[in-house]
Amino acid sequence: MTDQPKIPAQAQDKMPADEHKMTPRPDYAPRHPGVGKLKGKVALVTGGDSGIGRAVSVLFAREGAKVAIAYLDEDTDAQETAKLVEDEGSEALLIPGDLGGKAHCEEVAATVVGHFGQLDIVVNNAAQQWIDEDFANFPEEKLRRIIASNIYGPMFMTQAALPHLGDGASIINTTSVNAYKGNDSLITYSTTRGATLAFTRSMAQTLAERGIRVNAVAPGPIWTPFIPGSMPPEKVEDFGQKQLMGRAGQPWEVATAYLFLASSDGNYYTGQCLHPNGGAIVGA
Protein backbone atom coordinates (compact mmCIF):
# COMPACT_ATOMS: atom_id res chain seq x y z
CA MET A 1 0.00 0.00 0.00
CA THR A 2 1.58 3.28 -1.15
CA ASP A 3 2.20 5.84 1.58
CA GLN A 4 1.16 9.42 1.01
CA PRO A 5 1.16 12.60 3.11
CA LYS A 6 -1.85 13.22 5.31
CA ILE A 7 -4.40 15.57 3.81
CA PRO A 8 -5.21 18.43 6.20
CA ALA A 9 -8.52 20.29 6.35
CA GLN A 10 -8.66 22.99 3.66
CA ALA A 11 -11.08 24.66 1.28
CA GLN A 12 -11.16 27.01 -1.69
CA ASP A 13 -14.11 29.19 -2.56
CA LYS A 14 -13.72 28.52 -6.29
CA MET A 15 -14.75 25.94 -8.86
CA PRO A 16 -12.63 24.94 -10.67
CA ALA A 17 -10.19 25.33 -7.76
CA ASP A 18 -6.44 25.93 -8.00
CA GLU A 19 -3.87 23.15 -7.74
CA HIS A 20 -1.08 25.49 -6.69
CA LYS A 21 -3.01 26.33 -3.49
CA MET A 22 -3.44 22.70 -2.37
CA THR A 23 -1.63 21.06 0.56
CA PRO A 24 -0.08 18.63 -0.18
CA ARG A 25 0.28 19.20 -3.89
CA PRO A 26 -1.21 16.42 -6.02
CA ASP A 27 1.31 13.98 -7.48
CA TYR A 28 1.20 14.16 -11.29
CA ALA A 29 4.68 12.86 -12.13
CA PRO A 30 5.02 9.82 -14.44
CA ARG A 31 6.93 6.91 -12.90
CA HIS A 32 8.50 5.30 -15.97
CA PRO A 33 10.60 6.38 -18.97
CA GLY A 34 8.69 7.05 -22.16
CA VAL A 35 8.96 4.60 -25.04
CA GLY A 36 7.27 6.68 -27.75
CA LYS A 37 3.77 5.22 -27.48
CA LEU A 38 2.28 8.50 -28.75
CA LYS A 39 5.11 9.65 -31.00
CA GLY A 40 3.82 11.84 -33.81
CA LYS A 41 0.42 12.31 -32.19
CA VAL A 42 -1.38 15.50 -31.16
CA ALA A 43 -3.60 15.34 -28.09
CA LEU A 44 -6.19 17.80 -26.84
CA VAL A 45 -6.79 17.57 -23.10
CA THR A 46 -9.65 19.64 -21.70
CA GLY A 47 -9.20 20.58 -18.06
CA GLY A 48 -5.53 19.87 -18.68
CA ASP A 49 -4.31 22.64 -16.41
CA SER A 50 -4.50 20.62 -13.17
CA GLY A 51 -5.45 17.39 -11.45
CA ILE A 52 -5.97 14.36 -13.67
CA GLY A 53 -5.74 16.55 -16.77
CA ARG A 54 -2.26 17.74 -15.79
CA ALA A 55 -1.07 14.20 -15.13
CA VAL A 56 -2.45 13.05 -18.49
CA SER A 57 -0.83 15.98 -20.31
CA VAL A 58 2.60 15.32 -18.83
CA LEU A 59 2.42 11.54 -19.39
CA PHE A 60 1.28 12.01 -22.99
CA ALA A 61 4.18 14.42 -23.54
CA ARG A 62 6.64 11.90 -22.12
CA GLU A 63 5.31 9.36 -24.61
CA GLY A 64 5.90 11.74 -27.54
CA ALA A 65 2.61 13.59 -28.04
CA LYS A 66 2.26 17.32 -28.54
CA VAL A 67 -0.40 18.57 -26.15
CA ALA A 68 -3.08 21.25 -26.43
CA ILE A 69 -4.53 22.18 -23.03
CA ALA A 70 -8.01 23.71 -22.93
CA TYR A 71 -9.07 25.17 -19.59
CA LEU A 72 -11.40 27.79 -18.13
CA ASP A 73 -9.33 30.52 -16.46
CA GLU A 74 -6.77 28.85 -14.14
CA ASP A 75 -3.82 30.56 -15.82
CA THR A 76 -1.23 29.92 -13.10
CA ASP A 77 -1.88 26.19 -13.08
CA ALA A 78 -2.07 26.03 -16.88
CA GLN A 79 1.26 27.79 -17.34
CA GLU A 80 2.88 25.40 -14.88
CA THR A 81 1.48 22.41 -16.79
CA ALA A 82 2.72 23.84 -20.08
CA LYS A 83 6.22 24.08 -18.63
CA LEU A 84 5.99 20.48 -17.38
CA VAL A 85 5.01 19.36 -20.89
CA GLU A 86 7.91 21.30 -22.39
CA ASP A 87 10.28 19.83 -19.80
CA GLU A 88 9.40 16.44 -21.28
CA GLY A 89 10.75 17.65 -24.61
CA SER A 90 7.34 18.24 -26.15
CA GLU A 91 5.26 21.27 -27.12
CA ALA A 92 2.25 22.70 -25.26
CA LEU A 93 -0.53 24.97 -26.52
CA LEU A 94 -2.74 26.73 -23.96
CA ILE A 95 -6.32 27.64 -24.91
CA PRO A 96 -8.42 29.33 -22.18
CA GLY A 97 -12.18 29.73 -22.31
CA ASP A 98 -15.56 28.25 -21.44
CA LEU A 99 -16.00 24.82 -23.01
CA GLY A 100 -19.71 24.85 -22.19
CA GLY A 101 -20.33 26.86 -25.38
CA LYS A 102 -20.29 25.29 -28.84
CA ALA A 103 -18.63 28.26 -30.54
CA HIS A 104 -15.66 28.13 -28.19
CA CYS A 105 -15.25 24.37 -28.69
CA GLU A 106 -15.19 24.92 -32.44
CA GLU A 107 -12.55 27.60 -31.92
CA VAL A 108 -10.48 25.23 -29.76
CA ALA A 109 -10.49 22.48 -32.40
CA ALA A 110 -9.62 24.92 -35.16
CA THR A 111 -6.81 26.41 -33.08
CA VAL A 112 -5.29 23.01 -32.35
CA VAL A 113 -5.36 21.92 -35.98
CA GLY A 114 -4.16 25.32 -37.16
CA HIS A 115 -1.19 25.20 -34.80
CA PHE A 116 -0.17 21.54 -34.97
CA GLY A 117 -1.65 20.53 -38.34
CA GLN A 118 -3.55 17.53 -36.96
CA LEU A 119 -5.60 16.14 -34.07
CA ASP A 120 -5.41 12.49 -33.03
CA ILE A 121 -6.52 12.20 -29.39
CA VAL A 122 -9.30 14.05 -27.55
CA VAL A 123 -9.53 13.77 -23.78
CA ASN A 124 -12.81 15.27 -22.55
CA ASN A 125 -11.80 15.79 -18.94
CA ALA A 126 -12.93 19.31 -17.93
CA ALA A 127 -15.76 19.24 -15.38
CA GLN A 128 -17.16 20.84 -12.24
CA GLN A 129 -18.83 19.52 -9.11
CA TRP A 130 -20.57 20.80 -5.98
CA ILE A 131 -21.87 19.18 -2.85
CA ASP A 132 -25.69 19.10 -3.09
CA GLU A 133 -26.97 17.20 -0.06
CA ASP A 134 -30.03 19.49 -0.02
CA PHE A 135 -31.03 18.80 -3.60
CA ALA A 136 -34.49 20.38 -3.22
CA ASN A 137 -32.80 23.75 -2.76
CA PHE A 138 -29.84 23.30 -5.11
CA PRO A 139 -29.56 26.60 -7.05
CA GLU A 140 -30.74 26.64 -10.65
CA GLU A 141 -27.66 28.62 -11.71
CA LYS A 142 -25.32 25.93 -10.36
CA LEU A 143 -27.39 23.16 -11.92
CA ARG A 144 -27.26 24.81 -15.34
CA ARG A 145 -23.54 25.47 -14.91
CA ILE A 146 -22.66 21.88 -14.07
CA ILE A 147 -24.74 20.56 -16.98
CA ALA A 148 -23.05 23.01 -19.36
CA SER A 149 -19.61 21.99 -18.12
CA ASN A 150 -20.04 18.24 -17.73
CA ILE A 151 -22.53 17.34 -20.48
CA TYR A 152 -22.54 20.09 -23.11
CA GLY A 153 -18.75 20.52 -22.94
CA PRO A 154 -17.77 16.96 -23.95
CA MET A 155 -20.54 16.82 -26.56
CA PHE A 156 -19.66 20.16 -28.15
CA MET A 157 -15.93 19.35 -28.06
CA THR A 158 -16.52 16.00 -29.70
CA GLN A 159 -18.67 17.61 -32.39
CA ALA A 160 -15.94 20.16 -33.07
CA ALA A 161 -13.17 17.56 -33.17
CA LEU A 162 -14.85 14.96 -35.38
CA PRO A 163 -14.12 16.62 -38.75
CA HIS A 164 -10.41 16.52 -37.86
CA LEU A 165 -10.18 12.94 -36.55
CA GLY A 166 -9.16 10.07 -38.79
CA ASP A 167 -8.79 6.30 -38.68
CA GLY A 168 -6.94 5.34 -35.49
CA ALA A 169 -8.01 8.39 -33.50
CA SER A 170 -9.06 8.05 -29.87
CA ILE A 171 -11.62 9.90 -27.77
CA ILE A 172 -11.43 9.39 -24.00
CA ASN A 173 -14.08 10.80 -21.66
CA THR A 174 -13.71 11.25 -17.91
CA THR A 175 -16.67 9.88 -15.99
CA SER A 176 -16.69 8.82 -12.31
CA VAL A 177 -17.22 5.91 -9.95
CA ASN A 178 -20.30 7.88 -8.91
CA ALA A 179 -21.89 7.22 -12.32
CA TYR A 180 -22.06 3.57 -11.25
CA LYS A 181 -22.81 3.67 -7.53
CA GLY A 182 -24.46 7.08 -7.08
CA ASN A 183 -23.63 9.56 -4.33
CA ASP A 184 -26.17 11.18 -2.04
CA SER A 185 -24.06 14.31 -1.61
CA LEU A 186 -23.05 14.63 -5.28
CA ILE A 187 -26.39 14.10 -7.00
CA THR A 188 -25.95 16.55 -9.86
CA TYR A 189 -22.33 15.57 -10.49
CA SER A 190 -23.12 11.85 -10.43
CA THR A 191 -25.99 12.38 -12.87
CA THR A 192 -23.79 14.25 -15.34
CA ARG A 193 -21.13 11.53 -15.12
CA GLY A 194 -23.80 8.96 -15.92
CA ALA A 195 -24.56 10.98 -19.03
CA THR A 196 -20.88 10.90 -19.94
CA LEU A 197 -20.90 7.12 -19.72
CA ALA A 198 -23.95 6.81 -22.00
CA PHE A 199 -22.39 9.30 -24.43
CA THR A 200 -19.19 7.22 -24.53
CA ARG A 201 -20.99 3.98 -25.32
CA SER A 202 -23.22 5.58 -27.94
CA MET A 203 -20.39 7.38 -29.73
CA ALA A 204 -18.31 4.20 -29.74
CA GLN A 205 -21.07 2.52 -31.75
CA THR A 206 -21.39 5.51 -34.06
CA LEU A 207 -17.68 5.91 -34.81
CA ALA A 208 -16.46 2.31 -35.01
CA GLU A 209 -16.83 2.22 -38.80
CA ARG A 210 -14.55 5.28 -39.02
CA GLY A 211 -11.86 3.54 -36.97
CA ILE A 212 -12.24 6.00 -34.09
CA ARG A 213 -12.23 4.42 -30.63
CA VAL A 214 -14.28 6.02 -27.82
CA ASN A 215 -13.70 4.99 -24.20
CA ALA A 216 -13.97 6.37 -20.69
CA VAL A 217 -12.15 6.40 -17.37
CA ALA A 218 -14.12 6.39 -14.11
CA PRO A 219 -11.83 7.57 -11.30
CA GLY A 220 -12.68 7.09 -7.65
CA PRO A 221 -11.54 9.53 -4.92
CA ILE A 222 -8.50 11.26 -6.42
CA TRP A 223 -6.62 14.14 -4.80
CA THR A 224 -7.35 16.94 -7.27
CA PRO A 225 -8.60 20.56 -7.07
CA PHE A 226 -12.16 19.17 -7.17
CA ILE A 227 -11.83 18.20 -3.54
CA PRO A 228 -10.96 21.46 -1.73
CA GLY A 229 -13.01 23.32 -4.34
CA SER A 230 -16.29 21.54 -3.58
CA MET A 231 -16.11 19.96 -0.14
CA PRO A 232 -16.19 21.46 3.38
CA PRO A 233 -12.84 21.35 5.22
CA GLU A 234 -13.89 18.56 7.59
CA LYS A 235 -14.64 16.28 4.60
CA VAL A 236 -11.37 17.15 2.91
CA GLU A 237 -9.30 16.11 5.93
CA ASP A 238 -7.85 12.64 5.33
CA PHE A 239 -9.91 12.37 2.13
CA GLY A 240 -10.10 8.86 0.68
CA GLN A 241 -9.29 6.89 3.81
CA LYS A 242 -12.53 4.88 3.58
CA GLN A 243 -11.43 3.26 0.34
CA LEU A 244 -10.37 -0.38 0.35
CA MET A 245 -6.78 0.74 -0.21
CA GLY A 246 -7.07 3.19 2.69
CA ARG A 247 -6.14 6.35 0.82
CA ALA A 248 -7.02 8.72 -1.98
CA GLY A 249 -5.53 8.12 -5.39
CA GLN A 250 -3.05 10.47 -7.01
CA PRO A 251 -3.47 11.88 -10.52
CA TRP A 252 -0.47 10.00 -11.91
CA GLU A 253 -2.14 6.72 -10.91
CA VAL A 254 -5.12 7.59 -13.11
CA ALA A 255 -3.22 9.02 -16.09
CA THR A 256 -1.87 5.58 -17.01
CA ALA A 257 -5.42 4.45 -17.86
CA TYR A 258 -5.72 7.29 -20.37
CA LEU A 259 -2.37 6.40 -21.92
CA PHE A 260 -3.48 2.79 -22.36
CA LEU A 261 -6.68 3.88 -24.12
CA ALA A 262 -4.94 6.53 -26.24
CA SER A 263 -2.12 4.28 -27.47
CA SER A 264 -2.08 1.16 -29.63
CA ASP A 265 -2.07 -0.87 -26.39
CA GLY A 266 -5.81 -0.20 -26.30
CA ASN A 267 -6.53 -0.99 -29.96
CA TYR A 268 -9.25 -3.55 -29.13
CA TYR A 269 -11.02 -1.30 -26.64
CA THR A 270 -13.98 0.83 -27.60
CA GLY A 271 -17.15 1.63 -25.67
CA GLN A 272 -15.33 0.54 -22.51
CA CYS A 273 -14.57 2.13 -19.13
CA LEU A 274 -11.51 1.68 -16.92
CA HIS A 275 -11.83 1.96 -13.12
CA PRO A 276 -8.89 3.41 -11.13
CA ASN A 277 -10.84 3.74 -7.88
CA GLY A 278 -8.87 2.14 -5.06
CA GLY A 279 -10.94 -1.02 -4.81
CA ALA A 280 -14.60 -0.10 -5.23
CA ILE A 281 -16.51 -2.90 -6.95
CA VAL A 282 -18.80 -1.49 -9.64
CA GLY A 283 -20.52 -2.75 -12.77
CA ALA A 284 -18.51 -2.67 -15.97
Automatic annotation (TrEMBL):
Top-level taxon of origin: Bacteria
GO molecular function: oxidoreductase activity, acting on CH-OH group of donors
Pfam families with a match to the protein in the record: adh_short_C2 (PF13561)
Basic and acidic residues bias spans: 15-30
Positions of the UniProt region annotated as Disordered: 1-34
Record-linked InterPro entries: NAD(P)-bd_dom_sf, SDR_fam
Alphabetized UniProt keyword annotations: Oxidoreductase, Plasmid
Family: Belongs to the short-chain dehydrogenases/reductases (SDR) family.
Stored PANTHER family: NADPH-DEPENDENT ALDEHYDE REDUCTASE 1, CHLOROPLASTIC, NADPH-DEPENDENT ALDEHYDE REDUCTASE-LIKE PROTEIN, CHLOROPLASTIC-RELATED
Name of the featured protein: NAD(P)-dependent dehydrogenase, short-chain alcohol dehydrogenase family
Organism this protein belongs to: Salipiger profundus
Lineage, top ranks: Bacteria, Pseudomonadati, Pseudomonadota, Alphaproteobacteria, Rhodobacterales
